[in-house]
Specification:
Blueprint: H1 2-19, E1 21-27, E2 35-37, E3 40-42, H2 44-55, E4 59-65, H3 67-76, E5 82-86, E6 96-97, E7 102-104, E8 106-111, E9 129-132, H4 135-138, H5 141-147, E10 159-162, H6 165-174, E11 179-183, H7 184-193, E12 204-207, E13 214-220, H8 223-239, H9 241-250, E14 263-264
Parallel strand pairs: 1-4, 1-5, 9-10, 9-11
Antiparallel strand pairs: 2-3, 5-13, 6-13, 7-13, 8-11, 8-12, 12-14
Helix pairs in contact: 2-8
Protein name: ABC transporter solute-binding protein-amino acid transport
Organism: Bdellovibrio bacteriovorus (strain ATCC 15356 / DSM 50701 / NCIMB 9529 / HD100)
Domain Solute-binding protein family 3/N-terminal: 21-253
Length: 265
């Protein structure tokens, strides 16, 4: 009888432990948001999600995957309890999305020494501008009008697109472009991590020309867990700890960009 009770206790304990363990998926190759370093997942989205889940009492079994695969997992998969850093889908059928998790905010960034003034997209027509691959499709109709490919399929001579955003930032410091269009946190990350290789300490001006702010979300298989996560996310924001985690990856100087511009950082 004692043996049976012991086995029942052990099984109950093991079940409880298993119920507090979550399979969590993160993206890769997206610094400073989600990336792998020496076999470990790091980044703003990773640290925020892990901190919240730890506060909720969960242990995490994590796996990293490509951006394309992680989006498919959030929409259609059932392998993971939590999928971090994805576009928002519709709730239901075992998939529930958090409140906005991380904001992606694009700005025009130029070296202050260039003395550039830009109040609208059309002001960029005389500048050498750098952006990410296919950015002309992503940044609104005004940007599309100025920088979309010509009839021959070639981009305008004053516009360059980069496959690697590190190369985009290097081009700014090297003077190969007058200004670049980039998410503020990605720029902060490269400004900080490239500081030992190039002089990234020079002042920059930041212009807010892109009003649309995109967000990443966290997808859950359990609606109650989603609600608990959202509450803890809000506590993290209110306490200032959210911003402290962001500053780890973008540095103090560019931890926040104001909407009014230009602003020197």
């Amino acid at each position: 009888m004692k043996l049976i009770l012991a086995l029942l206790f052990f099984c109950s304990f093991a079940g409880a432990e298993e119920s507090k363990s979550l399979a969590v998926a993160f993206g890769k190759g997206r610094p400073p948001y989600s990336f792998s370093e020496r076999g470990n997942s790091r980044g703003i989205e990773v640290d925020l999600a892990l901190e919240i889940l730890k506060r909720l009492g969960y242990k995490v079994r994590s796996q990293v995957m490509s951006p394309y695969r992680i989006e498919a997992e959030a929409k259609h998969g059932n392998t993971f309890d939590v999928v971090v850093g994805v576009p928002r889908g519709g709730d239901g059928a075992g998939h529930f999305y958090s409140k906005p998790f991380v904001a992606y905010e694009n700005y025009l960034i130029a070296l202050r020494s260039r003395k550039i003034g830009a109040k609208k997209i059309s002001d960029l027509s005389g500048l050498r501008v750098g952006a990410w691959h296919n950015a002309w499709k992503d940044l609104g109709k005004d940007f599309n009008r100025v920088f979309s490919p010509k009839a021959n399929g070639r981009l305008p001579d004053n516009y360059r697109e980069f496959v690697r955003q590190e190369d985009q930032v290097r081009a700014l410091w090297a003077g190969d472009v007058d200004a670049l269009v980039m998410d503020r946190n990605i720029f902060g990350w490269f400004r900080m991590t490239l500081a030992s290789q190039v002089n990234t300490a020079v002042d920059v001006d930041v212009f807010d020309l892109f009003p649309v702010v995109n967000h990443s979300y966290v997808a859950f298989r359990d609606a109650k867990l989603r609600l608990a996560f959202d509450k803890e996310l809000e506590r993290l924001r209110q306490s200032g700890e959210y911003d402290s985690i962001v500053r780890i990856y973008v540095g103090e100087r560019l931890a926040a960009m104001f909407k009014s511009g230009p602003k020197s950082h």
